[in-house]
């Protein structure tokens, strides 16, 4: 009797979530392990953290904050609409935008750290000549453009619903593209750091090199699971009658 009394929307929603929560749990577990390993790597092998008093240690903020912001938090911000299915649309939009703004703040600090560590080194280290730096800066620019366009499109009350609907597929596409770019940039940066610091020892399978490699594999797994969850149509949040009304408020 309970099954028969369910609304079509409830039935469709429950079917769409088959396998969703186990995958989210695995994804979040991989993300937490990833952050722990990055923290262990920087604290144990790279000497910890500092600011401008020690440019070499100031650099260590760069990989930590980039992985926290442009990987872990970015994934959770994109998945917010699917993990928090019963929250009102307006609250989700504000939380999503707030998370993205916090990520921008982390990225700015991470960029200051890396440029400082290069410019204050003795002798100074050249900036923006590696593939990692090019991919990374492109990703940051795309991410910031996405945030601005998203705020204008989905939080500005005067914008018409058809324009919002037309922009939505582009917002999703370029959001996922920026996330994949962030994963690629992190992988390039990890490999670059391992080669520059370990040199010939990297080929000897030293513990730090293996830890860096394992962090890279976790980045791929976490990124792949995140993109899968975001791209599956059956996991989409079911629209509610009040959503259209809330868009204009």
Question: What features would you describe in this structure?
Answer:
The chain has 249 residues and is mainly α. It contains ten helices and no strands. α3 runs antiparallel to α5, α3 (20-45) runs antiparallel to α9 (207-231) and α6 runs antiparallel to α7 (131-155). The chain is globular and about 55 Å long. The relative contact order is 0.14.
Key descriptive features of the protein:
249 residues; single chain
Tell me the layout of helices and strands.
Elements (H helix, E strand, L loop, with lengths): L1 H4 L2 H9 L3 H26 L9 H4 L2 H23 L5 H31 L11 H25 L5 H38 L8 H25 L11 H5 L2
Helix pairs in contact: 3-5, 3-9, 5-6, 5-8, 5-9, 6-7, 7-8, 8-9
What's the mean pLDDT score? Answer: 87
- Which descriptor suits the 3D outline? globular
Main sheet overview: none
Q: SSE order in H/E notation?
A: HHHHHHHHHH
Number of E strands: 0
Number of helices: 10
Summarize this structure briefly:
By secondary structure, the chain is mostly helical. It is 76% helix and 0% strand.
